[in-house]
Design a protein that fits this description.
Layout lengths: L12 E2 L6 E10 L6 E9 L10 E5 L9 H9 L4 E5 L23 H14 L5 E6 L2 H14 L6 E7 L9 H17 L12 H5 L23 H15 L8 E6 L21 H7 L7 E6 L11 H17 L10
Parallel strand pairs: 4-5, 4-6, 6-7, 7-8, 8-9
Antiparallel strand pairs: 1-2, 2-3, 3-5
Helix pairs in contact: 3-6, 4-6
GO molecular function, one term: hydrolase activity
Organism: Streptacidiphilus cavernicola
Keywords: Hydrolase
Length: 338
């Protein structure tokens, strides 16, 4: 009898991160925002022979971002949590020619790929808890999605939520935020794709090897100056903020990690490497209670906007806070005999 060929999972293809990572496209059909066919891309870190899965992680990036943080994936894998990351529609690996980077007119449109990605992770690890991890704008998109899932009576297999510097409000004074929001509502109807003129950011410079950072990420997928912010997208974000401020119930315990300080500046200084140069951390602290249920907020001294891309000392503090929270919540659960 002829030997049968080994089974090949053709849904997963080699990823740009190289050995140990594979990607799977999730086709989403026609774009409701009329920019052609859209897709999301799910990336997985391959489980190694000596690793035993006790749960899983699904990670979601922020604006002008994509998944490249292999150190974060390794940290979860060491705890028995296989790691998956989702590049949302029109973001990172999923951005297609002719599309506006990261553009959605409603953050709820991302529910489709989030559900599909969660289904894929759950099928790969049946019966195991899934911890969701989200950064910046992803830290707004994911709680809104979870609140809708919980309202529909669906929580499992999600067991925990980790938010890394989530975007909970628009920067600036209350009067400025109110005026800007009203203007966005009007402009979004007529000029949704118009790019806003915003001050330059030094954040990319603090991360990339061409500046003061340690990471050689793809500048086509994450430009140093970021992608343009469009009127329609920011209007969608503001509607998401308003929903968050009315109070959510994500249905699971939450951990919110943030820097202990904000430093807005258009010029680089040493403080740029030891503060959040993107968001107002006081706003994160203020609105964290709107997630519902048990919420733990941990400020990390000297952290950058992405606390896991901070300088070595605050980065280790962030991992320690994450590890302690996972331990206290049994994520992953302790196996018999441990």
């Amino acid at each position: 009898m002829a030997e049968q060929p080994a089974c090949i999972d053709t849904d997963w293809q080699p990823d740009i991160l190289g050995d140990g990572y594979r990607r799977r496209e999730i086709e989403l059909g026609a774009d409701p925002d009329r920019e052609g066919a859209v897709a999301a891309v799910l990336v997985r870190r391959e489980v190694r022979a000596d690793e035993v899965a006790r749960g899983a992680v699904l990670y979601v990036h922020g604006f002008s971002d994509y998944f490249f943080q292999t150190g974060l994936a390794d940290a979860f894998a060491r705890r028995g949590l296989p790691f998956y990351a989702l590049d949302l529609r029109k973001s990172g690996r999923a951005l297609r020619p002719g599309q506006t980077a990261h553009y959605v007119s409603d953050l709820a449109l991302c529910d489709v790929e989030l559900e599909r990605a969660l289904e894929i992770v759950a099928e790969a690890h049946p019966g195991l808890p899934v911890t969701l991890v989200a950064h910046s704008t992803g830290g707004l998109i994911v709680p809104l999605w979870l609140d809708r899932r919980r309202a529909a009576g669906r929580v499992a297999p999600v067991a925990g939520l980790v938010l890394n510097s989530p975007w909970f409000d628009l920067q600036g004074k209350p009067v400025q935020r109110g005026a800007a929001t009203q203007a966005l509502r009007l402009l979004a109807r007529a000029l949704p794709n118009r790019a806003l003129k915003l001050p330059p950011s030094v954040y990319g410079e603090t991360l990339h090897t061409s500046g003061t950072g340690e990471w050689d990420f793809d500048l086509r997928l994450k430009p140093l100056a970021g992608f343009p912010v469009t009127v329609g997208w920011l209007n969608a974000v503001r509607r998401g903020h308003a929903r968050l401020h009315r109070g959510l119930d994500v249905g699971v315990p939450s951990l919110v990690l943030r820097s202990d300080r904000t430093h807005f500046s258009t010029r680089y200084s040493e403080l740029s490497d030891r503060a959040d140069t993107v968001l107002d951390v006081a706003q994160i602290a203020r609105w964290a209670g709107c997630l519902g249920g048990e919420t733990t907020v941990v400020p990390i001294e000297g952290a950058r906007h992405d606390v896991f891309l901070s300088l070595a000392e605050p980065r280790e503090q962030a991992y320690a806070a994450l590890g302690g929270w996972l331990d206290r919540h049994g994520l992953p659960p302790v196996a018999a005999g441990d």
